[in-house]
Design goal:
Blueprint: E1 6-12, E2 45-49, E3 64-66, E4 86-90, E5 94-98, E6 104-107, E7 114-118, E8 149-156, E9 162-166, H1 172-179, E10 197-203, E11 206-212, H2 227-230, E12 239-245, H3 254-268, H4 270-273, E13 277-282, H5 289-302, E14 309-311, H6 320-333
Domain OBG-type G: 160-332
Family: Belongs to the TRAFAC class OBG-HflX-like GTPase superfamily. OBG GTPase family.
Subunit structure: Monomer.
């Protein structure tokens, strides 16, 4: 199923029901008083978060959502029924944006969060409301008001604590599936991951959410490849894991391998570039200890001493537990 993270929809709240002009008619009471009831309020349109959703796919085809109109009032001082509300369910991380002003109305980040997005019209008043000492038989009633109409943009930004970065085939999907409960597709060809995937990691009742996005290649920020389309889903992350295939590192190419990704981040969004990053060197199971030692020596000469580095094999689950514990420690140390 296609992953959808942005849609434009139309929402219409219900109109208020009209008030009624009516007079009581009873046997032996030829001139009964006014008894016209009020109309019912129009239904509202609400947006509510749904933990079981992870995409806006449901709104790829259906674009219009209407609440029910309020019913008109009628005799015997009976009010019209209120129109039924309409609920629009969205995943956590959805931003609701006004199409005309481009202003963010609300950013849905909490479970069971419910936001009024279009208010129903107010009910009209029946003629009973206008009875007074000087007007015992009012023939006046009011009409219900129109419900609100809006065009809104739903934009999903996945909520994850940790995000993965890297070239295609660097092992991001393998790491995500090994470290968490995520079910990712893994194969030996570029762009195996075609849309963002979330996984949950839990260690001794402490947990974090990790996001895997399609691999990034040089030129991604200008539209090449798939990764740039989904980079926005890393914007809420507190830490990025830059996955590097250790078997591709040569004496003179390490900086290039590292900075291609960083440059694409900076070109896309400078705030994304500012998120802390750890370097994760994957596929150590393929190399000999001697080769790994040489590469570690090379890396230590090229990077700042404060830069966090980890050497793992996602495929063989080497170093994963140590990495997971340090991620947990980092997140909770920074009260994330």
């Amino acid at each position: 199923m296609k992953f959808v993270d942005s849609v434009i929809i139309h929402v219409s709240a219900g109109n208020g029901g009209h008030g009624c002009t009516s007079f009581r008619r009873e046997k032996f009471i030829p001139k009964g008083g006014p008894d016209g009831g009020d109309g019912g309020d129009g239904g509202n349109v609400w947006i509510i978060s749904d933990l079981n959703m992870n995409s806006l796919t449901d709104y790829r085809i259906k674009k219009t959502f209407c609440a029910e109109n309020g019913k008109n009032g009628f005799s015997t001082k009976s009010s019209g029924k209120k129109g039924k509300d309409t609920l629009i369910r969205v995943p956590l991380g959805t931003r609701v944006i006004d199409f005309e002003t481009k202003e963010t109305i609300v950013d849905i980040q909490n479970k069971n969060q419910k936001i009024l997005i279009a208010k129903g019209g107010w009910h009209g008043l029946g003629n009973t409301r206008f009875k007074s000492s000087t007007n015992q038989a009012p023939r006046k009633h009011t009409k219900g008001s129109s419900g609100e109409y809006k065009i809104i943009i739903l934009e999903l930004l996945l909520i994850a604590d940790i995000g993965t970065l890297g070239f295609p085939n660097s092992g991001k999907s393998t790491l995500t599936s090994t470290i968490s409960n995520a079910k990712t597709k893994i194969d030996n060809y570029p762009f195996t991951t075609l849309h963002p995937i979330l996984g949950t990691v839990e260690i001794k009742k402490k947990k974090f959410i990790i996001a895997d996005i399609p691999g990034i290649i040089q030129g991604a920020s200008s539209g090449i490849g798939l990764g740039i389309k989904f980079l926005k889903h890393l914007s809420r992350c507190k830490l990025l894991l830059h996955i590097i295939d250790i078997t591709t590192i040569k004496k003179n190419n390490f900086n290039k391998i590292r900075y291609v990704i960083l440059q694409e981040l900076k070109n896309f969004n400078k705030s994304l570039f500012q998120i802390p990053r750890w370097l994760i060197f994957n596929k150590i199971d393929i190399l000999t200890e001697k080769k790994i030692s040489k590469i570690k020596s090379l890396i230590n000469k090229k990077i700042h001493h404060r830069q966090k580095c980890y050497f793992i094999s996602a495929k063989n689950n080497i170093g994963i537990k140590h990495l997971s514990k340090n991620i947990i420690r980092y997140l909770y140390k920074h009260n994330i």
